[in-house]
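Sample intake sheet
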Amino acid sequence: MNQKSKADANTQGNSSSSSSSGVKRKAESDIPGPKLKQARLPGAPAKPDKPVNEAESEDPRETYDGKWIIEDRERGIKYYKPRGKDTWLWSWFDHHTNFGDGFVQCKIPLPKKDKHGEPKICLEWLKYDGSTSVIHNHAKAKKKHPAWYDEQKAKEEGEDSKDGKDQKSKGGGQRKWFVGKLGKFHDALAIWIGTSLRPFTVVEDFAFLDMFKLLTGRANFELPSADTLATKCRLYGNEVRKELKNVLAKIDSGSVTFDFWTSISLVPMLGVTFHHVTDELEMRRVVLAIRKMEGAHTADACLAKIRELIKEFGLKGKLVAATADNTSNVQAVCRALERSSEVLVGLGCGNHQLQLSLKDAAEPVPQVKAADQKCTNFVTYIHKSPETMEKYQDEQKQCGSKNPVKPRAPGTTRWNGKCDMIESMVGNTQPVARVLNWSLKDKKTKRKDVSEIDFLDHMSVLEGILPALQLIRKLTKFLETEKRPTVSRVAPMILNLAPKLDALILKAGMTGPVAAFIKGLKESINKRFPEWRLAILVAMLLDPMIKDSVMSPDEKKRAWSALEAEYLKVAASAIIQSGESAAKPASAVPDEVLELLGDIAKGDSMDIESKDEKQPKIASGSVAAQQWVTYKSLERPPATEDALQWWKRNRENFPYFIPLVKRYFSIQVSSSSVERVFSTGGNLVSKKRSSLAPTTMEDLVLMRDNRDMLAYHLTLSEP
């Protein structure tokens, strides 16, 4: 007897001995559902693996390593499924390990019935090569399983089937709106993760997956992997860049803001935003880049990166202004761009200048510095102790406050944050005194000396400087807006600060620390804003509610001459922008803006032009000449609406002015726009995501801040 015959004999002997040794197998008749028969494939082993229905082991996972054991209670059977195979069709096929990974057995019921009236089962063996197309092609075969595949798929995926009434009565089925939309769902999921700054690993959260299983009605639903979503976000970042280039190619002019930033992972970044006025005369901002800087933050390195971005996005010859922080390196970049005529004008951040003026005003007044320091220490002390915060709010209630408030945490770099802090503390003298006394007696606070946080003696100083801080805060909040043009009104608003500060000095009594602080603030503002650049003066002329009302005779002459030269170029090239004549409802100007403008907002008539000023060199009687004379002699209306709203209503009366309005109103007087980009980057690169690649971070920031450029549409129908 050869070796193979001996092995077969031993196998048969072991089988018979096990059956007679008291180990009773579960009879096939005891298993509900279809009766599984054994079939033999030519060339297969003599004894194929027994079906799961006859398995002895309580844990088939241990017996069949690498295969999932699935129990279908509705049909009363169990089946194997290779790991990673989540298609619903696998529940109708058995994967036998004795045949290796090469064969599967079909268990789909046939239309014919046996002698007992039970449907026959297709027990055909199929060669499995790792692709589900084999089992799909077999199930679709009309000769074997007519109409079974389509009907079963409709049941599994929630579509109407021939047996729809039974399906509805069972409450089964899935959401119809989800069928066939997995591709769009994956895209929408990637965009949601990118624009909401969620980590890619959110798809590995079991509760997140369970939510989608519940929504889709599919117990075997699987989310795309984190790597897949990261790849999709990178692709969407490139898509945003392409769309940006297409949009910027159609734009004639605009301005940029830029600045440096260092992330929590100590990666130096350069942020750049682009601002322009659309054909509908609406302000728009887009983020061009938040790009990693190699080496030190020198002016030469920044200038090279800015020029690289100008070339990448095709902005050469289109930039009107470049606005940045007031540090020496970035201002050197602005001057270099202006000298090379790459921009018309380089500006410093107006908000930063105002904050520096407050710092200059407080420096020589020790009483103001002491009041600010002690108030900051007290607020920090309260925020560090929940018990002290609760005690402070209770004391406010006892003193008659209906809505006790938490003191604002002080800002570390900006005086606007300190204004909010002082504003929340002024008027709460009695609650502060009670908390200070309590902190000396209470053992939990462990504070023996309160001199560092006791600012009650300085409360009058804080109350005196608060109105000046509130004026600066109103102005900075207006200048940092992106939806309204600010360049035409920054000069009159800053000039209007002088009489308001003079009134506060008189109220403070002309002497004392409060008056010294306000006088220093006024002097610092005059020093930091000595004169206005020509581009800002031209923008003021294009604001019909401002024009040259606050200009000196020399500034009027220079501004009107510059505007005339620009107007002649537009008229010569016949650049006329068409638009709707019907006026949209004008948005009312906020009261804060009217207060900052002062008497200028009333539209009081002033000399529009001097008698010695030359008339424009435009052919008399032409349409361009008529528009020029009409606009120049136009009396200023009250500043009750935004400048762009006025031009929307009058664009057909002055079409030659529209390109100039779009050009100059794009200038930004604050770099707050790029600071918002850094805030987005800071929320994205947190302590838990500090290893995020700079290129991936840029893709995600572009997706979030330019999400209107994502070319994706997800249309859902009601279930």
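Comment: Residues 355-427+453-528 form one domain. The CA atoms of residues 61 and 69 lie 7 Å apart.
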